[in-house]
Design a protein that fits this description.
By secondary structure, the chain is α+β, with helices and mostly antiparallel strands. It has two domains: about 30 residues; about 150 residues, Cytochrome Bc1 Complex, Chain D, domain 2, CATH 1.10.760. It is about 50% helix and about 15% strand. The protein has ten helices and six strands. The strands form three sheets. A two-stranded antiparallel ribbon has the order 1-2. Strands 3-4 form a two-stranded antiparallel ribbon. A two-stranded antiparallel sheet has the order 5-6. Helix 2 packs across helix 9 and helix 7 packs antiparallel against helix 9. The protein is extended.
Length: about 260
């Protein structure tokens, strides 16, 4: 009986988590984000886009500029000239060793947006790379919303489409969905561009992927080091195992 309970728990818990994830995502099917932490140019572009378009409201409170520079191959000078645009409490430009926080006051943010924009340091770990990639690509025009935009992955989102001038304006394509019980509803199955942006669809998808790639990295920067360190750890274990075996043979040869 105990084994049966454990088996049911092991099966139902992942299904419950999946169902919660789908509910949180608004039911829109997620696109595959082919992230690659070994793609340094993508990470560099993602950092650039994030700082220019996202960091006005969303901090990366556990990340430091110089750690980003070290991992992404950027010098301190390049960081100061291209990524550090915020100031400290004294009004001075932040230093490379500072955390990637923002200047926006929380009281002002709540008054302006109705809610304090969240820190996105761990967004890729909590939501998943596929959700984040889909979210960035599925903003659409909705005049009923305060900022004129809605999102298929995050319905009734409370932020504007800050990448609109790159992507352009798009509107959803709906289809009737029958739930099998005589009830029908409209579901979003895709989008069509109604106003061209600076980038075509493929170019904008790459921008969304670069930002996603950077946020996946920011959620766990140690992953960059861990992958390289793993080879040397396995090599050490192999050599240590060989030496231990030789020592065992030497120790036991007189006994046998």
């Amino acid at each position: 009986m105990k084994k049966l309970i454990i088996l049911l728990f092991a099966v139902l818990l992942p299904l419950s988590f999946w169902a919660q994830t789908q509910a949180a995502g608004g039911g829109y099917p997620l696109d595959n984000a082919d992230v690659d932490l070994g793609d340094r140019p993508s990470l560099q572009r993602g950092a650039k886009y994030y700082v220019n378009y996202c960091m006005g409201c969303h901090a990366l409170g556990y990340q430091r500029f110089n750690r980003v520079g070290k991992d992404l191959g950027l010098t301190d000078k390049e960081l100061l000239e291209n990524l550090i645009f915020t100031s400290n409490k004294k009004g001075e430009q932040k230093k490379v060793g500072d955390l990637m926080t923002i200047a926006m006051d929380t009281d002002y943010a709540e008054a302006a947006f109705g809610v304090v924009p969240p820190d996105l340091n761990l967004i890729a770990r909590s939501r998943g790379a596929d959700w984040l990639y889909t979210y960035l690509r599925t903003f659409y025009k909705d005049d009923s919303r305060a900022f004129g935009a809605n999102n298929a992955a995050f319905p009734l989102v409370g932020m504007p489409n800050v990448l609109q001038h790159l992507q352009g304006e798009q509107q959803p394509v709906y289809e009737e969905h029958d739930d099998g019980h005589g009830h029908t509803s409209k579901v979003i199955t895709g989008f069509e561009i109604i106003k061209e942006g600076e980038l075509n669809v493929e170019e904008f998808d790459q921008v969304a992927l670069d930002i996603t790639n950077f946020l996946v990295y920011s959620g766990e920067p140690a992953k960059m080091v861990r992958g390289k360190l793993g080879f040397w750890v396995l090599l050490f274990l192999g050599l240590f195992g060989w030496l231990a075996y030789q020592l065992k043979k030497e120790y036991w040869k007189d006994v046998h």
